[in-house]
Design goal:
Blueprint (H helix, E strand, L loop, with lengths): L14 E9 L9 E8 L4 E3 L3 E5 L4 E10 L4 H25 L6 H22 L7 E2 L1 E6 L3 E7 L3 E5 L6 E2 L6 H7 L5 H6 L10 E2 L8 E6 L5 E5 L1 H6 L2 H10 L9 H12 L5 E7 L9
Antiparallel strand pairs: 1-4, 1-14, 2-3, 2-5, 5-6, 5-7, 6-11, 7-8, 8-12, 9-10, 9-13, 13-14
């Protein structure tokens, strides 16, 4: 199924469990990361807490991470603008799409990202303190059978299926990311490359052209999805991320997997702001592990 195809409704919608945390890190004076968790239908939008669980019956769920960039505090401003625009524009676009006025999910997400890009460009041109302001954005839109995503920059979306290893769903929009995808660099070499933090795509940031990555991933009970900023990746290798997610089940009273990931990444590095949002499709009651 492509990102444009509306999945058939299920008799029993699965549950969704999520947790999120952002940390300034050990060296930065302010936090330029931001994350968003919300649910919506054609009529209303509800902000979600940093962790929780809910049924997907009747509502769509959106989770996003943005990493701002720019002088002074404009990076912090940019990431907040990005998540604010999602809250305002996505439900409106979805209502138009549902009414047959607009296209499918990929078109809705592309229009959303281009609107955010245009807003950041305009602000950068209008105010000297916002010149060059930009942001990465990685967004997951959950429906009962599919996760639709859109992405620009070097924040990441990972998929950890119930049966299988960790998969990076998104492409890092950088030369180093391109070298890694074509097999010219391994993970160790990419992490040590001097150009690893240089982006060739970001929302705003003076870029006149961006090409968001959009797609869809089918999900099943037991699957997990991680959305994170590059600060988390700087602190933890992919194998460590996978082991941490599998090891730390989100149990009442204990730290969530997202909290553990962020705290371990800050302890290992902490040179950058660090954010993680973990979304799980829990196994159904009585289902064997």
């Amino acid at each position: 199924m492509t990102a444009d195809t509306h999945p058939k409704p299920e008799a029993s919608a699965p549950d969704l469990r999520w947790s999120g945390l952002t940390d300034t890190g050990r060296y930065r004076p302010n936090n330029e990361d931001a994350f968003l968790a919300l649910k919506f239908d054609g009529h209303e939008v509800h902000f979600l807490g940093k962790d929780g669980e809910a049924s997907m019956a009747g509502f769509d769920f959106v989770f996003a991470v943005s990493d701002g960039m720019g002088g002074a505090k404009s990076g912090e401003f940019a990431s907040k603008i990005a998540v604010d625009r999602i809250t305002r524009l996505l439900p409106q676009s979805f209502r138009l799409s549902a009414a047959g006025i607009a296209g499918g999910f990929s078109e809705v997400l592309l229009e959303l990202f281009m609107a955010i890009h245009a807003d950041l460009i305009k602000l950068g041109q209008s105010y000297a303190e916002c010149a060059g302001m930009g942001a990465t954005l990685s967004l997951c839109w959950f429906r009962p059978s599919w996760m639709y995503f859109a992405h620009v920059g070097d924040s990441r979306i990972y998929h950890l299926p119930r049966d299988g290893g960790l998969v990076q769903v998104t492409h890092d929009h950088s030369h180093v990311g391109w070298l890694r995808r074509k097999g010219s660099l391994n993970e160790r070499e990419a992490r040590a490359h001097p150009g690893r933090n240089s982006l060739n795509q970001a929302l705003g940031a003076g870029n006149q052209f961006v090409e968001p990555q959009v797609g869809a991933v089918a999900h099943s009970p037991g699957d997990r999805f991680l959305i994170c900023s590059d600060g988390l990746v700087e602190g933890l290798w992919d194998r460590r991320i996978e082991e941490t997610i599998r090891r730390h089940a989100d149990t009442p009273g204990g730290p969530t997997a997202a909290q553990v990931l962020v705290r371990e990444a800050v302890r290992e590095s902490g040179r950058d702001n660090t954010t993680a949002v973990l979304v799980e499709i829990p196994r159904r009651a009585g289902e064997k592990p």
